Amino acid sequence: AQRPAWAVHCNAIARVEELMSKTFHDDYSQPHLYYLPPLHLFYAATPTSEITIQKVHNWIRIRVWCYDQIRKRDEVLMTPYQWRVALEGRYYAVPWEHLKAELKVRPDEINRLPPPGPDFKRRRIDKNLKVKRHNPETTQHKRVASRLEINVRFGLYGGFAPHDPSEHVKWGELSINARDLSSTLYSNVIKEVVWELSVANFRLELLGLDRELLPVVYQDPDTTLAARREAVICYIWRNGWARPAWETDRECDPISSSVWTHRVQPVKQLSLVISLWPGGKRFVNWDAKAAESESAFERFEYDVFHFYARIFHAHYGRKPILPLTQPPAT
Fold first, then answer.
1. What CA–CA distance (Å, rounded) separates 208 from 218?
2. pTM of this prediction?
3. Would you tell me which of 13, 18, 25, 188 could form a disulfide with 9, CB atoms 3.0–4.6 Å apart?
């Protein structure tokens, strides 16, 4: 989906995004996995469309639990399709008896889910299907199996009932339901949700890529090495963890500030982090001249994020999520 006008980047990151869209070709031979919902799932022609409202409302409902899973290192990286299913919130016991796909949950777990709601559309599953890799019907079976796994994870172990648009959920100091989200009074909430996800995804992807590029640090028996390295990375955003602390600290994420001087210190710290990556030696010595003017800093900022995006794409075969500019209300 095309990024809407309200989801903006600072100039340097916007230029990196434009470059990626023109020259980075994603590899779809392997599934693309995300710690949190990718941003494009919330992009629509109208931000107040019914499906967007449902996704945003249910994400706010499951959001804290998802962050807690990540903090406990119990996170399960999911594909965009799996996140789309999770955001629908239809955590029902979908019929599965004739599935011709590997099922990673037990029948007793499925049976503990509530029965399908009245709006559930039963799709026929061909019990005589001959499984072939590129058969569309095979894909359907895999998607049903994936849906069951998501429903068990969120409905059974997350403890979430199927989505109810009348339920009030907490977003900062607000307590809102789906109807509230569709009103102009709360129109900025969707922008804030997408901004937070851009920041959190960026942080988690940066940490994950660093672990894979520097195994000698993270696999060392002396775990203090990994802890110190993660502390260096977390200093980019100061509040020490992946979840933006905007609810308690309005200065929690200067790297997404619209004011360029606020971004100088975190981008400098990011440059120090990536200086240890293959090909990153040129970032070892921070050039203080980069902070002398907005134009000089924008060139440096572009160089840093372009290098990060190129390394990420080469490693994972997809474009990274870069932080959007923080909306004024947060």
1. 11
2. 0.91
3. 13
